[in-house]
Fold this protein.
Amino acid sequence: MYLGKIVSSSSHIEVFCQIYNPGEAEETPAPDDYGFGTFVGIERRDGGHLVGVIYNTTLLNPEFGTLGPRLSPQEDLAIFTPDYLNEKATLVAVFILGEIDGQERCAQGVPQVAATIDALVRRLSDDEIVAFHRPSGGSAGALGQLAIAYLPTLATMNSPLAPHLALVILGRLRQLFPQAAQHLAVLESNLAWKSRVEPVG
């Protein structure tokens, strides 16, 4: 399902998506649809898409702190003032993990071409997530048919949420790649230990 569109970025691989409000799309996304750790695709003009993961949420409410009188209740504004612009918005931050081109070829890491303003953002299906994590060639080492080459880039992310995001991703991959569950569990426990120890030391 479509979640919204790109409205800004903070870097080549960190972008912000504004979630659709009621009436802006055929199906209004629910909070569960754009939760922490959700894999998303950002459409590109060549028919492919960037692959990213949601790692943060920002709520915008310009009315907060405005104590002036209300001439109409909020629910009546659509009837009496149909041109009223609802400025409340939900923004989700997306960290780019790689791309899938128009020929369905997957590449993990920093893409050459960045996302564009107004590019549509949608949730990825389980099949698309699995396809993105299949190695494009050669051996994936102990993890077998599973590639997670973006983990080092994720580790450099300047956010306290980065360790938690990595753990959520690994937990999701354990469900989708049961044959690699044991190796993923070891990697997950190492990251969990590191995330607990590093802030202390």
